[in-house]
Amino acid sequence: MTSSDITPTDHIPEGTIVSLVGAGPGDPNLLTLRAVRCLRSADVIFYDALVNPVILSHCRQGIERIPVGKRCGRHSHPQEDINTLLVERALKGGRIVRLKGGDPFVFGRGGEELQALIARGIPFEVVPGITAANSVTTYTGIPVTHRGMSRSVTLITASTKEHQHEASSWKSLVELQGTIVFYMGATVIPTICQRLIEAGLSPDTPACVTTNGTLPSQHSLIGQVGDFTPDFTDYSKLSPGLFVVGEVVSFAEEFSFFAPTPLSQVKVLAVSVDTERSVIEDLLGDKVAYIHSLPTSKHEMDEYSEEIEQKLAQIRPGAWVAFSTTAAVDYMMEMLIRSGRDIRTLAQCKIAAIGKTTTLRLRSYGLVPDFVPTRRDRQGLIDELITHIGDRPTTIVSPHGAYDNETKPLIFPPLAHLSVIDIPLYHSVKVSYVKDDVTFFKEIGFTHIIFSSSKAVDNFAELMEKYDLHSLPRQAKVITYGPATTARLSTYGIQAYCTLPKATPQDVAQAIIDSL
């Protein structure tokens, strides 16, 4: 079947919609909020090769992610086949996302895909993306318009089949005296420049070609139109590239702001529980390219029981309630409700919490911690809270998960003046992944992998064997929490780059910085 065969006679399942979503120029931080929402609700995604694989991490676990090629002259799927794939999948129902580099309607052939959908009566929407002409240029320091210099912008596809216009067309282009942006034409830049000069453009006109725009690997070659001769550079290495011609290129150095650093090229895979990611991300923030959490387990709440009831009943005014994780906060609040209580049970208690993330979670329930240790780890909370309490007889309530490597409780030392009430509220269960959840990792090129426990290592090794992820630890610097985790890694033939004796998030962040 081809799109020309389509007739609007099929029954479309209720709720079906195809979203043509622009993924932007490359930097995942330039993805629109609407695009993220579409990805998070999608049942299947068809994506182009030029889409940054990091963007796929916004998808829900377990959905189909289908590559459909389209990388500058090397199309794994002809456009007609892509149209057919979209229609066939949409007829089965669900939320389908067609993820396209840049903007779907700027040399993205989005219109052709919509025509195929419309012919079959399939509902659709279009989510614009930031196109290269106003993003790559900006990251290069080039304003495409500037008062008194350029008041027009012309976007042209410069692929080998389409750049050969009539001489009159080139002349009209030059006479506009504006900015000209050529897409998909790095290998034909010498021909473009020759045609422009023949049409009357001064050879001294500034010009710039930028490859891998908006990414840490961005590289620009700036000169004049007359410089871009066939032997000026190896143009085959400049794809995918954007070629800009016009006086505004002269601002590139003055307006330059994008200066990638070694840290900005770091991509971290954190193989641990879900809560670890937010702390490391909080420390490194926008300084690194990407942090992806691969939780090997997830939390599930325990059933309300007589044992838990007895422990909740022991909470008295003046007690300290120490929270080490956001999960402990959430499950404590839920367990109070299940027991017929509410947050007022903690009204006369003092609250201790580890770090910013747990503090923010407590605030969401209207609780402000009375004590936050300077060290953002479990042992730091234990040591500093004991010092803060002093010798006063005190009850400490410790909500936590089951006693295993992934949900470590706060273990307070047996001191005569301390009475500790341990309340186990949740346990960890193994997370299962399908192939499409993890195989795109191989395209990302992680520079660092962090393992938080031996259990995390075992679960990752299972994924590694099942989905052929052996290249990931070979290409990355592996950081582990403690010698036991390193020893477990070695049983799978993986060598640790760095073993942290005290595995706080700060230590991890510093180890990454020191490795550069």
UniProtKB/TrEMBL annotation:
Instruction: List each copy of the Tetrapyrrole biosynthesis uroporphyrinogen III synthase domain by range.
Output: 289-507
Q: Which GO terms describe its biological process?
A: methylation; siroheme biosynthetic process
Q: Per UniProt, what is one GO molecular function of this protein?
A: uroporphyrinogen-III synthase activity
The pathway is: Porphyrin-containing compound metabolism; siroheme biosynthesis; precorrin-2 from uroporphyrinogen III: step 1/1
Boundaries of each Tetrapyrrole methylase domain copy? 18-227
Record InterPro entries? 4pyrrol_Mease (IPR000878), 4pyrrol_Methylase_sf (IPR035996), 4pyrrol_syn_uPrphyn_synt_sf (IPR036108), 4pyrrol_synth_uPrphyn_synth (IPR003754), 4pyrrole_Mease_sub1 (IPR014777), 4pyrrole_Mease_sub2 (IPR014776), CobA/CysG_C (IPR006366), Siro_Cobalamin_biosynth (IPR050161)
Lineage of this protein's species?
A: Bacteria, Pseudomonadati, Bacteroidota, Bacteroidia, Bacteroidales
Q: What class of enzyme is it?
A: transferase
User: Is Cell cycle one of the keywords UniProt gives this record?
Assistant: no
Give the protein's recorded name: uroporphyrinogen-III C-methyltransferase
One Pfam family name from the record? Answer: HEM4
Family, similarity comment: Belongs to the precorrin methyltransferase family.
Annotated EC: 2.1.1.107
**Keyword Coiled coil (UniProt):** no
